[in-house]
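We modelled each protein-ligand pair independently. The example shown here corresponds to the flavin-adenine dinucleotide entry; the chain sequence is given first, followed by the ligand as SMILES.
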Amino acid sequence: MKLLTFLAKRFVAGETAAEAVAAARRVNARGVGAIIDYLGEHQASPDAARAAVSEYLRLIEAIRESGVPASISLKASQMGLLVSPDVCLENLLTVAQHAGRFGIRVWIDMEGSDLTQKTIDVFERLRPRCENAGICLQAALVRTGSDLDKLMRQPLSVRLCKGAYKEPPSIAYTAKRAVDGSYRMLARKLLEAIPRGAYPAFATHDRALIHEILGAAREKGVDPKQFEFEMLYGIENNYLETLAAQGYQGQVYIPYGTDWFPYFMRRLRERKENVYFLVRNLLRM
Ligand SMILES: Cc1cc2nc3c(=O)[nH]c(=O)nc-3n(C[C@H](O)[C@H](O)[C@H](O)COP(=O)(O)OP(=O)(O)OC[C@H]3O[C@@H](n4cnc5c(N)ncnc54)[C@H](O)[C@@H]3O)c2cc1C
């Protein structure tokens, strides 16, 4: 377990909000922004969800006191979606409205497909009351094009990712080429929606896709400040500095906390080299 904790440190900034803010400060020094995520998901009791809310309120204070510009990210199931949508909404409102007082953006991560509709529903109830809230959508899901069309009827901050959850072929693209094709199509849709109030965050480390998005943005004459690129802590993200030097906005997503296991497993599953790295280290024990 100690070795696992050691290996997880590659992807997780530490156990406390102070360690996450320190990581955000290092990222800021490179000309790149930060999004801080307190790890946790699938809270089954109102008390556990409330504890996560309290930690987010402490995190917001830590961000504010540090003066380091950072957004925050959270999961609907961490805020009590499994308890009830009403409990989740109330908790989200507490965090998002407090963050909003200090100009801090709040991203809602997207979880497995069993929670997609419920997450979108709670976001739809949240956003008229919290302009600082944005939602993540996954290119791997076949439904995302239609979700985006519905959500974009009003101004929308949306993070587009490929999707980190294993989903069945009945509802998801499973081949990399198909997921990339979907991402490309959705990215174009988002760039076109900027004049109608869309603020896209392209969350990917895929250089080929980033170059295509940059090309499409230039072609459409989009201002570099009207969208951003996001990458994960612990995955090669130096390219954000290059982009920042060219006037584009970049953010690093920085997770912290003790509940790192599911997040760590998703990072391992994404890339087989990570599994070899883990096995090599376990064999050395
Ligand atoms: C800021 C941010 C927020 C995210 N939020 C969500 C969310 O809310 N819900 C969700 O389902 N997913 C989320 N994801 C994860 C995302 O869906 C993908 O699983 C992940 O980003 C890998 O996809 P990719 O777009 O980088 O492309 P890929 O084609 O998978 O990877 C491109 C390149 O990136 C590098 N890379 C990618 N993953 C790893 C890894 N684990 N370890 C080492 N190198 C790697 C490799 O060099 C790879 O060739 C988020 C990702 C980012 C960057």
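The longest strand covers residues 249-256.
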